[in-house]
Amino acid sequence: MTGSDRVLERLTRLHPKKIDLSLGRMERLLARLGHPEQRLPAVVHIAGTNGKGSTVAYLRAIAEAAGLRVHAYTSPHLVRFAERIRLAGQLIDEDTLTALLEECERANGEAPITFFEVTTAAALLAFARTPADLVLLEVGLGGRLDATNVVTMPRLCVITPVDLDHREFLGETIAAIAAEKAGILKPDVPAVIGPQPADALAAICDRADDLDSPLIVAGADFTARPVEDGFLFTGAGLTDWHLPRPALAGPHQIANAASAVAAALLLDLPEAAIEAGIAGAEWPARLQRLTRGPLPAQLPEDGELWLDGGHNPHAARALAEALAEMTAKDGRPLALVTGLLSTKDAAGYFGAFAALRPPVVAVTIPGEDAARPAAEVADAATGAGLAAEAADNIEAAVARAAALAGPGARVMICGSLYLAGRVLAENG
Predict the structure, then answer these.
(1) How does pLDDT run across 286-343, given as a tens digit for each residue?
(2) Domain 3-280 belongs in CATH node 3.40.1190.20
(3) What is the dihedral of CA 339, 341, 345, 351, to 10 degrees?
(4) What CATH architecture is 288-426?
């Protein structure tokens, strides 16, 4: 166990709940730390249900291609906590991370504070002390009461597509959830709004009207039309600007890339950097192909193993669309290895794959208290009309899925970022 792991373990004990949306505890700790949130470079604040991480990845690649030094804060991590914090382009090193966490722990004392709040404070402290040109700040949950919403004057806000997720914290309807996401909007701060359901867009617009926040809305102020080798972007005075195919796989990535392009134009980043960033972005566990390691070795030589961390019905529909497109091109038989948290809509997730009808091998996500048992995951898949069975572990599930699919199998491991993290760790 590293020094940072020991501090992180202690920090989990400071609040009885993993999630308790509020800004008061965060504001108290930041005051004790000398208000690092007030000493940041220009901030792009990013909320939404799906596509936040991909949009951050595109924006980071664009800004770095333009020669900017970029801080980034994302969550959750997949394998190591340090993945959440990038300082001027580099993952935070162990010694710096440990020292920051210990400083925040001392400043907080024994006062109640959630794990995400205190670690967000550590990230803001790191960003304030390390020279950079831009901070990409991803919301953890919601927006209005998220720990990142202590930044009062970002340079720009982005809201990616909103869908039903985390209803126990954010509300039971799309409109209610969108209103929480729109809590990051600030007076006179422009905001790029990705493609939204009508109810979500109405809620976001209502909040923007109250604050006099200028919106740049997908479908109205900018559009993206896919073509064979990329997409055509129209907006900000540009018409059918031919951009390369997004580096991240899947048809849905065109919408994420287009929102990043709209944001980059508002940041006055050069067109050449935008083109390079769209083509060069990297983000693991988003339609990622695994080609080496013990898990791909479970497949025959002509098989393929893929990984995706999407975990709600909207993400499942995007994944199903991407898989349908891949199958139409090469005809490979498909099987899923799926693990889900108990807080997720299992029926809605599997319903997205009804037309593809892949066999499903269910697993319990290792090491997660909120993991849905494999048998329960299999029952949910069966309820959605899919043939399903449970496996004891990930490696066995991959081997069984390949056997069920048959020669040339494409096996997709999916359903949770927490499962994706375990897969990447087990696969080395």
Answers:
(1) 899 999 999 999 999 899 999 999 988 989 999 999 999 999 999 999 999 999 999 8
(2) no
(3) 0
(4) Alpha-Beta Complex (3.90)
